[in-house]
Amino acid sequence: MRLSKFFGQTLREAPSESDSASSQMLVRAGYVRQLAAGLYSYLPLAHRSLRKIEQILREEMDAISGQEMCMPVVHPAEIWQESGRWYEIGDEMGRFQDRKGRELVLAMTHEEVVTTLCKSEIRSYRQLPQMVYHMQTKFRDEPRARGGLIRVREFVMKDSYTLDKDFDGLQSQYEAHYDAYHRIGARLGLNLVAVQSDPGMMGGKIAHEFMYITSIGEDSLAICEETGYASNLDVASFRKIPEPSGPPQPLTRVHTPGQATIAKVADFCGVTTRQTGKMVFYMGDFGAENPSKLIAACVRGDMEINELQLRYAVNAQALRPAETEEIAAAGCVPGYASLRDIDHTKAVTVVDDLIPESGNLVVGANEHDWHFTGANYGRDFTADIVAPIALAYDGAPDPIDGKSLRVVRGVEVGNIFQLGTRYSASMGATYTDESGVEHPIVMGSYGIGVGRALACVAEEYSDDYGMDLPISVAPYHVILVSLGRSGEVTEKAEALYSALLAAGVEVIYDDRDVSPGVKFADADLLGMPLRCTVSSRSLSRGGAEFGRRRSKDLAIIPLQDAVEQIQEEIIRCFDRLHQRLEHLPTWESQSS
Which of 45, 268, 458, 479 has the fewest CB atoms within 10 Å, measured from its CB? Predict the structure, then answer.
């Protein structure tokens, strides 16, 4: 491809809405253009990279017996109502009506469609196991699109679905996807970390996310390099060590004027924050048929609430911070609240499982400027629910061997879910076993965002000047730069370009009538990993200048040998990338 014919243009500076290195570079290099918040056009360079990512996904899915297919973007609402998700998912679902008033859905994912197909295509145990996949557009009306391609509203996802007759079969296919996702990451040039995760709207019991660790990530992760423990912070567990407190002390009411924070009251009472109880209040949404209710939650003063685990503990659909008057209605005073003397008929009360093991706590007296010391669970206050609702923190002991956890940020590139019979049972997708007895099909679901993968690669392989994409993802393997506007330089460059094309080399040729400075700046920006320059200087030295995009040691290669040497370097680039496949995590290794 000739840059003089390039549809798009490079930019010296990124637009103000670009909020990450990947977003800035993809915009500046003319890969993408934003149409509206979370909606992007993929220009020719991005389109080529996305197709390469899709081909890697296709090859890895085929390698684990996947069959590629394609399912619609628009779904009838009935199948989402049948699964129940129509009623569980909020504004992020794109709902609309056709001209006859029928309710339709823009695909967020395709579990319902696959399950519907199972009802017509699967009859017998002899047809199982199966694995199908496709690469299709999804729409999620994100409240806050960000990070360029990292969080968008319309995107292409590779989603695959496994169908089995039992959970042993599901486990086998789940493990195969686990290993395949690590291979995909390696082939993209990314080190992906598999972390335990919450199944969320997908349902099921077991799920993993495959994370690219980066400071721009919107997910928090708890990991321990020593033990290999890795989890999304929402579902992370950790060892909870009670603070030594001695024998129970008498409950004593203490005047604490103006001490309305944990830090202040601990200092005032001469204790550490580990010897206090922290109250946090939410209003819980329990569905259309149940009124919302105050949730009063207590954790140790040095810890924070894990809102997801609290929501699960009380079985609420959603939580929001409670207002002052809602807290007061249960007899509590913000800043001086505790579970002692709370009106249990007006609140669901929950304590973290460490609280019953923590004696002689300082807690609020539910009276302005007053606290209690010597508070003990069971004697002085109780709760409706005891559950692990404290959030893991940086430095917390990991649950495997008590080693220190590290909290980092990450971007979710892919995810895998053991759905079980969540969809097949509710939608009637069954198979008949050897005895003629019907059973629900056991299902798994596995996704990777194609555009998000490109964004993560661009984030990883960017510097101050542009991108240096892996050979597997770059739109073209080599950029050929001509620094002549006529005469021998142009003639030699044109001949080399033709020879590279004839040899099947993926080459983009900068034949524009612009200054050398502009050409070199764009060569740095565009992301091709190899660069070949033909100039009067290179010709006087014996040929063309050639090397890696980031290398300072560029070699002069004879023009008659240029095609062969460029092909050899392309092979070496792929070989270096494939070396990543030799020492990848596997399900077997992480389970041992």
Answer: 268
